[in-house]
Amino acid sequence: MNEMHQKLEEIKELTERLQSEYPTETNAFLGFLNKAEEGKALSMRQKELINVGLAVAAQCEWCIVFHVQNAVKAGATRDEIVEAGFMAVIMHGGPAYMYMTPLFQALREFLPEDA
Fold first, then answer.
1. CB contact at 8 A, 4 and 110
2. Which of 26, 55, 60, 79 is deepest in the core (most CB within 10 A)?
3. In which residue ranges of the chain is pLDDT below 50?
4. Are 48 and 74 within 8 A, CB to CB?
5. Residue 7: CB partners within 8 Å, gap ≥ 6?
């Protein structure tokens, strides 16, 4: 299994465990997530590009993988995704800059022509 797909599997496994062991908290979080994504002002592509930038700033490899994949599925281009990552670098500096590495790894996996 590719490294980025492994991270997605880890997200799935964690979510299933938390839903089993802490259903109230987990379902409240997932419910909020779903409601927040229902807004109509931004397209899903725009929302995922924002999430990519936030994931880079948060230095969360799992979040980067998850949101790069979702951005690709929502029709975002390579350049849009990279630019979203750079917006995080502007606001977060050098540490965010280094988290462009998993962003490119995820792009290679989810946009194979980028290999």
1. yes
2. 55
3. none
4. yes
5. 61, 62, 65, 66
Domain count within the chain: 1
Can you list the positions of beta strands (E) in the chain? Answer: none
Domain that holds residue 77: 3-114
Give me the numbers of helices (H) and strands (E) for the chain, helices first please: 7, 0
3-state helix, strand, coil in the chain (%, to 5): 85, 0, 15
Residue partners of 62: CB distance under 8 A and separation at least 6 = 7, 10, 11
Q: Which CATH number characterizes residue 72's domain?
A: 1.20.1290.10
What digits encode the pLDDT tens for the residues 31-49? 999 999 899 999 999 999 9
Neighbour tally for 9: CB within 10 Å: 11
